[in-house]
Specification:
Helix content: over 70%
Number of strands: 0
Distance between the termini: 87 Å
Mean pLDDT: 84
Largest sheet: none
Structural class: mainly alpha
Strand content: under 5%
Length: 111
């Protein structure tokens, strides 16, 4: 991302006359210097915040990768358990159906 051009570089530097009794305040230069210092410190703090956010983003991504891999392993385990349970259930249903057929056949005296 391109760095923004500071306002002080975009605007021509004008020296304000002081003490003329006109519309310009004699303390304008001092106040402007304070504002420029505040802008400079704000820019530094924003840079620090950006660095912190990048670090937090990387930490979050690595944690999410770990959680994702853990969940994938758990899901694989559940799938194998489901296959095993399905096979048992299918076998049980076939056995129950066969038992019912034997009972029906015995009831009709087929054997």
């Amino acid at each position: 991302m391109a760095e923004p051009i500071p306002l002080s570089a975009r605007l021509p530097r004008m020296k304000l006359e002081s003490g003329s009794g006109g519309p310009h305040d004699p303390g304008m230069e001092a106040r402007l210097a304070v504002l420029e210092e505040i802008a400079k410190s704000t820019k530094e703090v924003l840079g620090d915040i950006r660095v912190d956010l990048r670090g937090m983003r990387e930490e979050s991504r690595s944690e999410l990768r770990g959680i994702r891999e853990e969940l994938r392993g758990d899901i694989r385990g559940l799938r194998s358990d489901l296959r095993s349970d399905f096979r048992w259930l299918l076998s049980l249903m076939i056995a129950a159906a066969a038992a019912i057929m034997v009972i029906v056949a015995h009831g009709f005296h087929w054997f």
